[in-house]
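Reviewers of the previous submission asked for a worked example of the structure-prediction workflow described in the proposal, so we include one complete record here. The input consisted solely of the amino acid sequence. No template or homolog information was supplied to the procedure at any stage.
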Amino acid sequence: MNIQIKNGHLIDPKNQIDGLRDLFITAGKVAAVGSAPADFVAQQVIDATGLVVAPGLIDLAARLREPGYEYRATLESEMDAAVAGGITTLACPPDTDPPLDEPGLVEMLKHRARELNKARLYPVGALTRGLNGAELTEMAELADAGCIAFSQADAALTDTRVLMRAMQYAATFGFSVWLRPQDSFLTRDGVAHDGEVATRLGLPAIPVCAETIALSTILQLAHETGVRLHICRISSASGVELVRAAKQQGLTLTCDVSANHVHLSEMDIGFFDANCHLVPPLRSQRDRDALHAGLLDGSIDAICSNHSPVDEDAKQLPFAEAEAGATGLELLLPLALKWARQSHRALADGLAKITLQPARILGLDAGHLTVGAAADVCVFDPEVYWKVEPAALKSQGKNTPFIGMELQGRVRYTLVNGQLVYQSKVSQ
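From that input alone, the workflow returned the following structure tokens.
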């Protein structure tokens, strides 16, 4: 189908486009930007007056809860949430049940996603069998099945010899290893940042050094092995400084941060708000400010949703007993735009953190609207305010720290491969 998106403010960080442009789509590809190609006849016209036309968003961490946790969410519900949030490509961690440590599981998940014909799905394979931290998976076979990187998700890997061998294996084949730095002994039983709020509320605490000790080890092993390393969900000022120093020393690595941690701190826990029970924990206001600064100077490359839907029963418990996690797919765009506004940066800078930069981390030719590229497009209203309420979210998981808050920016249309997969029913 030939589609024309007209009168929109087109923002494409890769091609440094930031102005009024029409977008023309043919056979699932970007056919032209600005002027229509010869003999182009639009079969569908989308009027984007007052709207921003941008590359489809790319999320580096979206737990879709299949297989194994369908009572929390289903692939259908979370793919609907993804496209409603303008996300056209997402990576899912391997901590399913069973974990993504066998090619058959990966192929099944990709097949299910293709059948839904929504967002593009890229599984992250398990680094060790069963995520038990003892025996390496057959990464080459998992990569052939469709895994784009390898990770332990939030599972501990305490044996540094196993971690080093995993990095050597990955480096040999050019695979990327994604690790969230956490010392499992220092985090054991902890539920909140080791600060004034945890002390006042009597919550078991997780110190910052739980992140920095593990991160120091990871960076040393990456230097030793030459592996392509991605640090997931950095949460502290000290962690950002270690990443910044490693990059300045020439180590090849990338880093992301959860959108929750960009805007929230331990103070948001208030009086035991279980929606703020997250992994990693919300840290101090100083740490939050350091995450802002890390995004500004490029120490942190991308923002992700860290989407982890939790069923209502698991959240309606005392803070320390409630399950950690929050929905985030539909909040990624407004939270990234909020960071750009707070940092006095152009919207293009905020969009780059959720389009172009994640694509580079994944090694995909995506996150841009170059002529000939796949027509993955997000059209959104950057000015409209909307209240985050459970009924407003398509995800099966309704828990988020932003419930009851107003956010600015909401998706109107989402196209994947030139097909309209989401259109807002409510006039914004």
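The radius of gyration is 21 Å. We consider this example representative of the routine output the project will generate in years two and three.
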